[in-house]
Structures are given as structure tokens and as C-alpha cells.
Amino acid sequence: IFSPVPPLAAYAVCEYRKSSEMARPPYAVFELRKLDNTAFAAYATSRKGLQLGGMLRHCAACIAPQMGWDEKRVAAFVLGHGESRGETHKPVEGPRLIFIPLPSIEFQGEAKGRTVGSIRRVLVTFSGVIPASEFNAIVRALEGQELIDETSREPVAFLTKAPTRVNAIADYLSEGRVWESVTPVVLPGYDDPKKLRCKLNEALLTPQEKAAVVEKLERRIETLLRKALLQAGFAPEVVEATRLFWRGSGFLPGTDLATNYAVPEQCRRYRRLHCRIEFSKPVKGPFCIGGGRHFGLGLFAAVPEGRTAQKGGE
């Protein structure tokens, strides 16, 4: 006897991705506007980026009551504190809200080309897993919120939802094979745990011995950069096939020396470097890597196809 299948009473949508692709949580972009809404509120990337991140996290903590978050949830999800009050800092293992300041990248003529400018927008996303409805509620709650200066305790700007299709931030959200850091990468570990650099000053070392020491240091940095890519969610086969270049100065015009960027206290003991990554196949942004990736450090922008990028590395 033929028994037809009854109509579906419930269904769910399941998205798939290749194992070599990163998981991509949803994100939203906000503009930083002056209080009178006459212009952007601009912040210098190297000197004010960390301060801006602090104001954004404080803003998110202020909306906690309407989101139903308790103090423990705010400390972990918003502020990134996995430790109890008074304890040494511990990384958060669960979901975490992320604010990434986005320095504008604009064409400044044939002489300068693509140049990194001030921060006028911020990207909001999260790591881990939370319901999409909760993230959408966070985005709605952030609309129109004021940013409070830590020193003066006065509002200095407010947030307004912005479109993602804007030329000034397009390189962060596009797809490309070659990416360059806009903010420096904080290495996820000590690059010279055995104090090998001290040996370079020893007069008894031959040129060959000094070259061997330098090679060990370079291999250590490369290992740490690949570790940072893995921690950011890139698949091992993708990381293995990449070519890496690094140095203290930036690859993009408008970037500052890596050591001039303000970083969180827990990142200050680790070396900071600007990097250029050449993937074997195009990858899609946005992404940050390194120890300060939850603070907008290690932020990369795609190099447009056809542009002769400045080679570098050590």
C-alpha cells in the first residue's frame, strides 16, 4: 500500500564550508560620529586604537542590563577576562565579543597609492558560538550608543550602523591571495627564549656562527607566525602552504613602526611585527591574527590583484 510522506512540520537550514576555509561568524560595521553628527570622529591608529577599543568594550558593558547579562558574562564575553577579580589574566575559552577598529585605506594619488589613515569605523563580531538572534540584538543595542572618554568621563562620539560596501574598508572584507598587516602582529610566544640575540654581540663568534644564530631566530619567528594563523582558525593545510614575510616597518604607506602601536598589558612582553602573507589560494576577510587579535591588532588587508606589492621580510 502506498503511504506518501506527510508534509514537513519543521526544518532547519545547515550551511557547509570546505575544511580549508575559516569559520566566519556574522559581523556588523559602525561609523564613529562626532556628537553633533557633522563629521566622522577620527582616531589615530597607532596611538589611539587601543584606547578606542577600551571605550567600545565599556559601551558594550553598559548595555548589559538590557541584554540580561550578569557580571560574570560581562567580564568574559565583553571584557575578555577569564580570571576572577584580582587574579592573573587568563584567556577566555568560551564565546567573546570582538571590536576591531578599521583604519581607512584610501587612494592618495599615484605617488602614495593605497594609504592607511585614521580609524573612522569599527567592525563588531564574536569568536566562539552564540545564537544569531543574540548577536543581532547586540548590534541593535549598540546603535546610537555614546563612547565615553576614560579620562574625562565625558561622551566624545557615538555609534551609527554603517554599510559594509565602502571603499575605505573594502580591502578588509574582500577576497585575495596576498594580505598585508595594517596593525602589527603580536607574536603568540617569545621569539628568543634562549637569548640567542645576546650571542650576536660576542666577538668570538665567526660570521658563519652568527649567520646560524640569525637563521635560528628567523625560523622561530616563522613558527610563531604559523601558530598565530592556526589560532585564528586557518586550516593546517592552508597555513603550511603560505609564504611569510615580516619586518618592523609596515608594508602599506601610512602604517607606523610595529613598536609604536599601543598594545594590551598582557601582550607587551612579546615582539610585534608587520607581516605580509601569500596564500596559495585566495582567502576571504576579515581576519586578525596574533596575541592581540581580539583588540584589532594583527589586522590584515587584501592586496588588490595586479598591484606590485612591496617585498619584505627578514
Short synopsis of the structure:
This protein has 314 residues and is α+β, with helices and mostly antiparallel strands. The protein has nine helices and ten strands.
Task: Characterise the protein shown here.
The chain is an alpha+beta fold. About 25% of the residues lie in helices and about 25% in strands. It has 9 helices and 10 strands. It has helices spanning about 45-60, 65, 70-80, 110, 130-140, 170-175, 195-200, 205-230, 235-240; strands at about 30-35, 95-105, 115-125, 145-150, 155-160, 175-180, 185, 245, 270-285, 300. Strands 2-3-1-5-4 form a 5-stranded antiparallel beta sheet. Strands 6, 7, 8, 9 and 10 form a 5-stranded antiparallel beta sheet that branches. Strand 4 (about 145-150) and strand 5 form a beta hairpin. The longest helix has 25 residues, at about 205-230. It starts with about 25 loop residues before the first strand and ends in a 12-residue tail after the last strand. The model is unreliable at about 310-314 (pLDDT under 50).
